[in-house]
Structure prediction request, 346 residues.
Amino acid sequence: MAIDAETLEEQPEPAAGDAVLEIRNLEVTFKTEDGMVSAVRGLDLDVRADEVLGIVGESGSGKSVSMLAVLGLLPPTATITGSAKFRGLELIGRKQKELQPIRGAKIAMIFQDPLTALNPVHRVGVQIIEAIKAHNPDMSNRDAYNRALELLELVGIPRPRVRIDQYPHEYSGGMRQRAMIAMMMANDPDVLIADEPTTALDVTIQAQILELVKNVQERTHTAVVFITHDLGVIARIADRVQVMYAGRTAEVGDVETLFSGSKHPYTRGLLSSLPALAGRTGKLQPIAGAPPSMLHPPPGCAFHPRCPMAQVLCTQEQPPLRAIGAPQQLSACHFADQVPDTRPGT
Ligand code: SF4
Prediction:
């Protein structure tokens, strides 16, 4: 089925809790001078309406690449297979032209550094109006201007009537990220993907932006995918968490379950290296070693060279993602039932 504005209108609205984006067996491989890099290796992921899904993992775990693949934003050196359905419409294998009505309007993405996304030679208001009119060409200039003001207010920009006429360099780092969020919310997307949007900001501003994303989600009911390497950020913003390692899912569950009853040694390692959860001794326990090269990922469970619970089976067989622990909790570990049931350090 072709994707156009009419087709999108005809798709049934998902109810709260239904999957608005369903990814199945997604594989992304890059051709490089050194060989084939397997960045994403059979990812299954659901983004449900009206939720904040946190995707967490170290650099190179495939969390950003998988979202860029879904939106058709990877370079031609990438080979993408599998399925990603937005409200039932397949996105993988679509031509760029077919993805245009979806990108920005239905699925929007905020990046880490707003300076690279905002054009420095255009006023912020002009850029927001452009985003609004790209998907609403018949909207009058007056209505688009008023909508831009509304969006600046929504994201807490002070004196929006003044700020709308300023250039990005006249905004602070936190305000630029707010302006980016305003631009991405311009067309009331069904899914907002936030890719490490607070990493470049200092801690105080980071807290404000997290609060803002949460507020915007609660007011608009947009599903949010929040990508981060920081479980502390996840604890503050997410309803559910998907932990990724070496291009695969390690564990999935709601945020309380994963923080209090994780059933995967990698998630437990991430938790042990969090200052707030380091336990009574206050000692941080970093995960030994480094993430694997995706040119030659380890056989079996890719985490086995770093895993304190690894056994021979782990070096031979890839563990399937299976239900264990709390309802809707899934873990890809052969020995998930042997992972202790308490928080590290307690
Ligand atoms: Fe560790 Fe083995 Fe579980 Fe992988 S499958 S996380 S190596 S115990």
